[in-house]
Amino acid sequence: MTARDAGYRNVFSADGNVADLEALIATKLAPGSYVVHLGAAEPAGNLALDLNRRGFSAHHVAVYESVDIPSEKLRPALAALPWIDGITVHSPKAGRRLANFLADCGDFWHGTAFCISNAAAAPIQAVTSSPVLVAESPAEQALMTLIATDRKLAHPLLPG
User: Fold this and answer.
1) CA 140 to chain centre
2) DSSP string, 106-153
3) CB of 95 within 8 A of CB of 87?
4) Whole-model pTM above 0.85?
């Protein structure tokens, strides 16, 4: 369900990273406005601090947390890894986790890592010779377009 579906009338998307979101907020709200940033326990950037520096009254509230899973707990996935064609990577933190996992299991995976940004891709590129592709912009839609485009090129007989 989207925010509009839930009844919100003023919905805007930065379609990018935390800097893009900060810029969007700065153009849509007056300085001094109260902003609550609902996000990760360990956010990629510090949106609240950056907005406070611009004269907003901003606060970060952690509403989810991503938890590291040791590679040994992921060992069952190793059996399927050679047959996995692609993995999506939505953040630099996820990129680091995937890079650590790939480094632990050797260089026998030859699928494609589809990354939302260069920062997400960099740690993976350092540990694998497999393809690492980066979305045109750090946005979910750009990542989905990257995957769809690659799928069409790699599998021209598939619909879509």
Assistant:
1) 7
2) -S---SEEEESSHHHHHHHHTT--S-EEE-SSSSHHHHHHHHHHHHHH
3) no
4) no
